[in-house]
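Chapter review: from sequence to fold.
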Amino acid sequence: MSATPPTPSLPAGTPGNGPSLTRTQWLICTIAAIGFAFDIYELLMLPLILRHALMDLGGIRPGTPEFSKWFALLFYVPAIAGGIFGLLGGYLTDLFGRRRVLTFSILLYAFAAFAAGFSTSLEMLLVLRCFVFIGVCIEFVAAVAWLAELFPNPKQREKVLGYTQAFSSVGGFLVAVANGAANAWSLSLPPINAEWIPLVGGTIKDQHAAWRYTLMSGLIPALPLLIIRPFLPESPAWQAKKTAGTLKRPSVGQLFSTPQLRRTTIITTLMFAMSFGAAFGAIQMMPQILPGLPEVKTKAETAMTETKAKNAGLPADKQVVPAAVGKQVEQAHTATATTIQEVGGLAGRFVLAMLAVVIISRRKLLRVFVLPGIVIMPIAFGVLMQTSLSMLWVGIFLAAFFTVAQFSFWGNYLPRVFPLHLRGTGESFAANIGGRMIGTMFAAVTALIAAQDWVPGATPAAKFAYTAAGVGTFVYVVNFGLSFLLPEPGAEDLPE
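The token string follows.
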């Protein structure tokens, strides 16, 4: 199938709402929603498993310089790889088509995530996370361009982009559930053995580590894609120009060829970076903050004490390692907090999707989420997340609500400001150079600042919380200032 079937005319009594979706269009929305969901699923694995992966693979303890070093490397090096190859992916999306690149990118990150579960060293985990990031960075750009061009009706396009991107937060919820399930069932699941994998050295010491099963679950999105892919159409607008021989050859240089394109590229790249900075420099620090709460510490210590008591009198091969039980307690609370975080993000995305067809000005639409965030971020991380477990849940919900909605905003906005032959390249530059490379760097910034002696806080967790409050507030203020320079799109139709 190479083109979308003709869509029926507007149903009577629903002027302006757009035509009802055909069966093929529902299929398109389904695979796009799966792609968006597992984009975030793959990315949010790292904050959930990183603490325990560092301790298991490298014997590194939180609060040490070595922990901060590898924490920063595993966040930022994959982001650099994703940014560079993601930019190339945007170019390939314009050159070879949206569908083909979309399919390749999903398969890449799914199989790389699965393989990461067999990591025998920090270096191996780092390389495989780079491949995951590359796939995710390419997929977002290809999917947004693909959807925007398959739904030419403006209101329908806004709704499709808004609601399919909302499934990104569903992905965050799913990875929290998967991590919780892996944590609960890891001791009863089959052991993980890497000896059968060619060219992989080393052994897996803890063959029932929950973080490994969480990584391996990243294979899931590849399964429906392999079945549905033959029924997915190419973008009709791109295909028509390609067939007619009128498709212009894309290049990154063209993004700066006119004053309007140059301004659009620079401002969207900087603002995308700030949106990602709030997510990675603040929200994704929650797994580092939560273990420092007195409630969590007490529950973990109690669980370890009870385990030691149960071990008394048992043969050595029947005993359970108390430290592993303590980890399970921490991971269980982290999974719960991550679930609440993703519910907040999902709510923000749905509100954005509803407001996108009501608020005409894109600047005003973005400020609905940026302006309150300037107040919310210091309160959430500087106060609420250090008060109690219930207050942490409130804080992470609010921070995610205002931050995650901005990602849906960019998915709706970017296709409207770049011409067809530069749509993938332009979106990729803003999302990957801005978001993935510059924005994700704020995770490393937060980790490095939190390791300094002059940062307030008596524990590593408290230092992370105060640093996240400062970083989160900073990027929100910068984004608010840049919003006054953000170009307003012209006509509702996509530029050719």
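Two observations follow directly from the output. The domain at 23-228+249-308+320-485 is CATH 1.20.1250.20 (Growth Hormone; Chain: A;). The chain has a mean pLDDT of 84.
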